[in-house]
From TrEMBL:
Protein name as annotated: GNAT family N-acetyltransferase
Keyword terms of this UniProt record: Acyltransferase, Transferase
Annotated N-acetyltransferase domain residues: 5-177
Example GO molecular function: acyltransferase activity, transferring groups other than amino-acyl groups
One Pfam assignment: Acetyltransf_1
Origin superkingdom: Bacteria
PANTHER family xref list: ACETYLTRANSFERASE, AMINOALKYLPHOSPHONATE N-ACETYLTRANSFERASE-RELATED-RELATED
Length: 186
């Protein structure tokens, strides 16, 4: 079992590592929904621009990192009060491939729930997951989420050429994050 991760809030200096992890996760898990030309091309530059902007001027949001030996091994980003019905949006939750199923994702989601309970107008939280990503859906359901409808995937950078066809995403929702079955372990 790997050494425990350390968790902290992200800063602008973390954009590069977050972007690299985000791009790797997309390359591994978003094939078939995102165009191969995008995933095999400029996805890391795209993610670097997004994360540099997001962390350079955070507004009503929080990004939490998981680190091991100064290496970012996971992250979660929450936008507070994103939707009047569904609450705060978990916009991203990714864990490095070699440490999946080690509890880091659960810990990140637990910290996101705590952040929502402390900063959101209410305790509701939701996220979008690719319809094809059944492993992630199973993970969220195990943590108390319910599926609450589908929508078309928005293309990265609003460039439709970055999508493959017309993929769908599924909303996973928690009406009250204080009831998430996440346990008390670190």
């Amino acid at each position: 079992m790997p050494r425990s991760a350390r968790f902290r809030s992200a800063g602008v200096d973390d954009a590069e590592q977050i972007a690299a992890l985000h791009a790797d996760s997309w390359r591994r898990n978003y094939r078939g929904a995102y165009a191969d030309s995008f995933l095999d091309g400029d996805v890391e530059a795209d993610r670097r621009a997004v994360w540099s902007a997001r962390l350079g001027g955070p507004a009503n949001s929080e990004t939490i990192l998981a680190e091991q030996d100064a290496r970012v091994v996971g992250f979660v980003h929450v936008g507070f009060d994103d939707d009047p019905r569904w609450g705060s949006l978990v916009d991203n939750l990714h864990v490095t491939h070699d440490l999946r199923r080690m509890g880091i994702g659960t810990q990140l989601l637990r910290r996101a729930a705590r952040a929502v309970a402390g900063h959101g107008a209410d305790n509701a939280m939701y996220l979008w997951v690719l319809r094809q990503n059944t492993a992630a859906q199973q993970f969220y359901r195990a943590l108390g989420a319910t599926a609450e409808g589908t929508a078309p995937v928005s293309p990265p950078g609003e460039d439709p050429a970055r999508l493959h066809g017309a993929p769908l995403k599924l909303r996973m929702a928690w009406p009250d994050v204080t009831r998430l079955p996440l346990g008390d372990h670190q």
